[in-house]
Amino acid sequence: MGQLSGPTDPTTDAHWEHNHPRKGFFTDTSICIGCKACEVACKEWNHNPQDGNLELLGSSYDNTGSLGASTWRHVAFIEQGQERITQARESGRALVNLGMPRIGPPAPDSSDPAEADTTPPDTADFRWLMSSDVCKHCTHAGCLDVCPTGALFRTEFGTVVVQDDVCNGCGTCVAGCPFGVIERRSNGTVKVATSREDQHDEHPAVPNAGIAQKCTLCYDRLVDDQTPACAKACPTTSIKFGDHDAMVETAKERVADLHAKGLTEARLYGANENDGVGGTGSVFLLLDEPEVYGLPPDPRVPTADLPTMYRRAGLAVAGMAAAAALAFLGGRA
Amino acid sequence: MTLSEFDNLRPSGPARRRGADGKPGTRRRRENGDGSREMPMVPEAEFTSYYGRPVVKPAPWGEDVALYLFLGGVAGGSALLGLGGQLTGRPILRRNARLGALAALSLGAGALVKDLGRPERFLNMLRTFKVTSPMSVGSWILSAFGAGTALVAAAEIDRMTGCRIPLGPLRKALQAVEGPAGFEAAVFAGPLAAYTAVLLGDTATPTWNAAHEELPFVFVSSACLASAGLAMVTTPVHEAGPARKLAVLGVLGDLAAMKVMEHRMDPVAAEPLHLGKAGTMLTWSERLALGGGLGALLAGRNRAVAAASGFALLAASALTRFGVFEAGLASARDPRYTIEPQKNRLAARRAAGVSDDAITTAR
Questions:
Q1: Of A259, B112, B287, B327, which is most buried by a Cβ count within 10 Å?
Q2: Closest C-alpha to B99, from B148, B157, B143, B144
Q3: Do B80 and A320 touch (CB under 8 A)?
Q4: Percent of chain B with pLDDT over 90
């Protein structure tokens, strides 16, 4: 067992002897065009079934809803007006002033409005945020820690994958994930729209029903030195794939670049190894607060507090034993 | 004003609410009747979220799991009462507690297996031992507890049937291990009652996670009063004295632990404990525990009062487990309980000068 929290190399923690570099995504949402090619490529490659009925969710162009057992890439659409853009720009600028940890000498202060290129973006009074969400492949993965069967494991690439022939569908990982990514696949909800019922009388069998499912970072492609399906399909290189360290470096360059252009709303999500999950394998560049995209603002892997919980439980057990002893020893009732 | 004839088919929009700071909700859409914009499909919230959708996913657990939380506690407490009866020469209490432990355990384990996505793979729970997984640790505790409990219960059943079960030479072995097995079951009784609290605490479900420090105390107290309640129902008053005392101690512990827990938890994450179904269940749980405890304390030597108090205590414990279970699921379904406490704690850390541990960074 490795560490429960803090910066670490998850592959070494998992006792992999040969040293593959940790792989990861960098999803740059500033150049996402919301085409959903990643969603489609992911579904096709991984043979993921339709989840739920086809329905319009009334949330801009997002009719997928969220990540789930059969949706391992999810493109979020957020429509915003002038006021929110201003707020996002301020909150991003505030992050710079916090004095975040940095690598190398301090960059020239590009947030100074006098020096920065403040060319406004082409849509100053409204914007449409699009972001392709995916499993974070955390350094300290809540799902992996709490899995009782060992079905979830850490691969040699530092990613977290479910072995579908081992999982017994206990569902503990679903509650353990601070990002709400992993889910137990049900086979009872898959139906096609009523109007097309005749054409789709015979539904294909749902694979892996009843067990937990999530993004594998295309483990089957990685072992063959291939790029994951979503990154391969992304037409704008919004989804980048590579060695985790290189992805974090690229992300940091990109955010500095955007700040230099006056787009102070840009910020990184998951690039800090001191955060509550020890940094994520999938790093994101966001243009607003994380909760706007449905991401938790301060996730913490629950297992980080497990030693405390076991200590408290031990105390409680001692109390229970003492109460029982007292009940029998304390004279006649 | 309506310009489109289709507008009267739309659902009436929710009332516009504003945040405490007077700023409008973020996903604000102007009231419009011209049909040029989509109507919001989810109620507008005072905090920012993605269309009001949950951030974390609730555990896919049905009421089977809540039932197990209750039955596991009954089984654990009963094993302790069984050992007490064994050591202090109370044969009826011992027999009833042992049989009660086995019944609760069997029903509870059955409920757990039934709740699995792939019940036929339940043995995979014992495929490995993982200390980071409370579910894995719990599966081993349950198995170890089950071994001792099954042995002592078998010995009791054999005695009750006048040694007519065709055990042959095994009867001697059974009688020899009966005493040690009672001890073995009692060793794992406390852990069985407490590990479920760690199981719930070690999740990203806001209310359970926020309660992780005090929940073990709530659960063991609840186990004490429930098992004592069962013994008060099943056992004549002259042997049930220790059960009455355990009931009173359990009620005191339960009420105190629950209050301390609600007080020390994040106030936002504690809200689901007071709202809706969970709130009702926990209120009634407190009332029934108080009633049952008073009954045991004041009139426990009356058989009828003892039995009624016992039932009240069993119901109180079940309601505690179902209430905490429901509150957690409700907290996971509403993004507010995930986002607000997290934003607050992040802001508190920043105010205290800690600025290097946020997941959001600008460089």
A1: B327
A2: B157
A3: yes
A4: 80
- Show which of residues 135-194 on chain B sit within 8 Å of chain A, judged by CB atoms: 135-136, 138-139, 189-191, 193-194
Q: How far apart are CA B28 and CA B215, in angstroms?
A: 39
What are the distances in angstroms from CA A63 to CA A53, A74, A115, B265, B359?
A: 11, 10, 42, 36, 28
Q: Mean pLDDT across the stretch B126-143?
A: 96
pLDDT confidence of residue B10: 64
Q: How does residue B363 score in pLDDT terms, banded at 50, 70 and 90?
A: confident
pLDDT at A332 over 60: no
pLDDT beyond 60 at A226: yes
Q: Are A291 and B224 in contact (CB < 8 Å)?
A: no
The two structure tokens encoding residue B257: 């632990």
User: Which is more confident, A202 or B160?
Assistant: B160
Structure confidence at residue A99 as a pLDDT band (50, 70, 90): low
How many Å lie between the alpha carbon of A92 and the closest alpha carbon of chain B?
7
Per DSSP, B358 falls in state -
Sign of the Cα pseudo-torsion (B254, B255, B258, B260, in order): negative
Mean pLDDT over each residue of chain B, to the nearest integer = 89
Q: pLDDT per residue over A14-48, tens digit each? A: 888 877 899 999 999 999 999 999 999 999 999 98
Contacts with A60 from chain B: Cβ below 8 Å: 38
Q: What residues of chain A lie within 8 A of the CB of B243, using their CB?
A: 327
In which residue are the tokens 């609730």 written? B58
Query: B80 at the A interface (CB within 8 A)?
Result: yes
pLDDT tens-place string over residues A173-185:
999 999 999 999 9
Q: What is the domain class of A10-300 according to CATH?
A: alpha beta
B97 touches chain A (CB under 8 A): no
Q: A331 to each of A101, A314, A328, B88, how far by Cα in Å?
A: 63, 27, 7, 12
Residue-level pLDDT at A312: 97
**pLDDT at residue B43 is higher than 50:** no
How many Å apart are CA B185 and CA B208, to the nearest integer? 28
The alpha carbon of residue A217 is apart from the nearest alpha carbon of chain B, in Å, by 20
This model of the complex carries an ipTM of 0.87
Closest residue of chain B to A304, computed from CA coordinates: B202
Domain residue ranges in chain A? 10-300, 302-333
Q: Do A267 and B39 touch (CB under 8 A)?
A: no
Give the distance from residue B297's alpha carbon to the nearest chain A alpha carbon, in angstroms: 9
Q: Give every CB contact of residue A176 below 8 A, 6+ residues apart in sequence.
A: A142, A143, A145, A146, A147, A302, A303, B202, B203, B204
> Closest-CA residue in chain A for B73?
A320
pLDDT, position B32: 44
- Are B363 and A295 a contacting pair at CB < 8 A? no
> Under an 8 A CB cutoff, do A316 and B194 touch?
yes
Cross-chain Cβ contact B342/A147 below 8 Å: no
How is residue A192 written in tokens? 């096609």
| B198 to chain A: closest CA residue | A309
Characterize B90-101 residue by residue with b for buried, 16 or more Cβ atoms within 10 angstroms of its Cβ, and e for exposed.
beebbbbbbbbb
Q: Do B359 and A269 touch (CB under 8 A)?
A: yes
